[in-house]
Design brief:
With about 120 residues, the chain is an alpha+beta fold. It is about 40% helix and about 15% strand. The chain contains four helices and three strands. A three-stranded antiparallel sheet has the order 2-1-3, with helices on both faces. Strand 1 and strand 2 form a beta hairpin. The longest helix has 18 residues. The chain is globular, with a radius of gyration of 14 Å.
Length: about 120
């Protein structure tokens, strides 16, 4: 339900606006039933949990407009703190291969629902 142009556009628009709140979204992959993304949060203020809640709300409203009824999301989410460029590179390699492992495409660059909003630096 998530791997579709309308959701990809909605997700990108939301992430573009995130910079207004000092949130930087790096690379991401939208899978049919979940999203992987790399995000840098501000040191104070908005929390990752709050931001994810708003992201789910915005994308959920778009899903409803598309006629896809709730539930859209599982409870909670998984996060992992990256501490180095090496860690980021390793995690990105794993994430970018998800569509290939799921047999959605032959090469990761063939998957349409991925990208990078801003370049995250370590």
């Amino acid at each position: 339900m998530l791997a579709r142009d309308e959701i990809h556009d909605c997700f990108r628009a939301f992430c573009d606006r995130a910079e207004e709140h000092d949130v930087a979204v790096g690379r991401y992959v939208i899978m049919p039933d979940h999203i992987h993304l790399f995000v840098a949060m501000p040191p104070v203020g908005l929390t990752l949990s709050q931001w994810i809640h708003v992201l789910r709300t915005v994308v959920g409203k778009q899903l409803l407009r598309l006629g896809i009824q709730k539930p859209h999301w599982q409870e909670g989410f998984f996060d992992h703190v990256l501490r180095s460029a090496e860690s980021y590179g390793e995690k990105w390699e794993y994430v970018r291969m998800n569509p290939v492992r799921a047999q959605l495409c032959d090469q990761p660059e063939d998957w349409a629902y991925q990208g990078e909003i801003v370049r995250l630096e370590f």
